[in-house]
Amino acid sequence: MLQNNHVPDDVFECRTRHPRERRRDVDDGERMTSASPIGPSAVDPLLHIEQHGTPHVLRDRLASDVRRGLTARPKRLPPKYFYDDRGSELFDAICDLPEYYLTRTEHALLRRVAPAIIAAVEPSHLIELGSGASRKTRVLLDALQRSQPRPVYVPIDVSGGMLQQSATALRAAYPRLRVYGLVADFEEGLPPLPVGRRRLVAYLGSSIGNFEPPADQRLLRAIASRLQPGDALLLGVDLVKATATLEAAYDDAAGLTAEFNRNILRVINRELGADFDPDRFEHVAFYNAEAAQVEMHLRAREAHAVSIPALDLVVSFEAGETIHTECSRKFTRDVVETLLASSGFRLERWDESPDAAFALALGRVETAA
Fold this sequence. Notes:
Layout: E1 23-25, E2 31-33, E3 36-39, E4 47-51, H1 55-70, E5 75-76, H2 85-94, H3 101-121, E6 125-129, H4 137-147, E7 152-157, H5 160-173, E8 178-183, E9 199-203, H6 215-225, E10 232-238, H7 243-249, H8 256-272, E11 281-288, E12 293-300, E13 304-308, E14 313-317, E15 322-329, H9 333-342, E16 345-352, E17 358-365
Parallel strand pairs: 4-8, 5-15, 6-7, 6-9, 7-8, 9-10
Antiparallel strand pairs: 1-2, 3-4, 10-17, 11-12, 12-15, 13-14, 16-17
Helix pairs in contact: 2-8, 3-4
C-alpha cells in the first residue's frame, strides 16, 4: 500500500508543491527551504513542519483526478486519496493485523541491517517519503544517532495530522533530533530537500509497488535528480510469494482494509460534496499473477448513480462495475536492480528477510542525475 523533481500528470496510479521558497541558514552550513510553516517551531526550535501546496490547489487536483478517473473506462482513482487523517489512522491499524506481514517483516529486517546501512552511508540527514506514523523509522534513527551527534530527520507525507503527531512523538523520544517535516503530495512534485553533508532517502513499505511502469522509474529518477553523488536510497520491496498470503494481506478478516479502501469515497464526499454511499460498494482484492501485483477495487453492489456537485457531474454505476483504487506490485531482485540502474542508482546492498518475503535495496547515487 501506499504509505515525489516533478512526476508528470499521467502518473495516475498513485501522492504538492507550489511553495514560496526561501533559504534559511541553520547550523553546520545546512540549507532548508521554507514555505508555509504550520508549527510548532515557536514551542520547539528543533521541530519545524511546513505545508507545500495550498488547500485550494490540492482540492483542484483532487477534482481533476476524480473527474478524469470516474469518467474513464474502467473507472479508477489514485490511491493517494486514501490518506486523509482518518485513512492514515486506518492504515496504521492495518499494519498491526496478523495478515499484514509487510510491516512486521520489514521492521525485523531493518533491526538486523540498519546499523550496517547507516555505517555504509554515514548520513547526516534521513529523509523519508510517505513517512506516516514513522514506526520503522525509529530503527534507522537508533542507528543514526549513535554515529551523528545532531541528526536531521525529514519526514514527507500527505497527511498533515499524522505528520504532526509522529514528529512530535519523535522529538520526545530523541531529544537531539532535529525534525523538518514537509506536508506534500510528492507524487505531483518532490519538494525541495534539505542540503546536508550526506543524505539517505528511505522509501519503505514497498510503496514503490503502487506505481506501474514507467511511473516507478520516473519517480525514482526524480529522487535521484535531487541527490548528490554519495547520497543513497533505501527502498523497501515486497517480494513475489504465494497468492493466498498476498490476498489475505489485502483482504483481512477484520475488514480494516475494506474500510480503508472505502475511505476514498468519504474523502470525495467531504471535499467535493459527492453523495457516495460507501456501503453500496464492496471491497475486492486479488493477485494478478501476470502483472505480479495485488489489485484493490471497489465494486458496486447494485446499479445506481452518484452526484458530485463540485464537478457538475453525475456518475452512473452498473451492478458489479468496479473502481480500481490501488495496485501493489511484487518484485524480484532482478527487477529491482534493473529499475534502480535505469533511475540513476547502483545497487550496493540487497538484504532479504529469512523467509524471502521482503527485501531492502540500498542504491547509491554515483553521478548527478
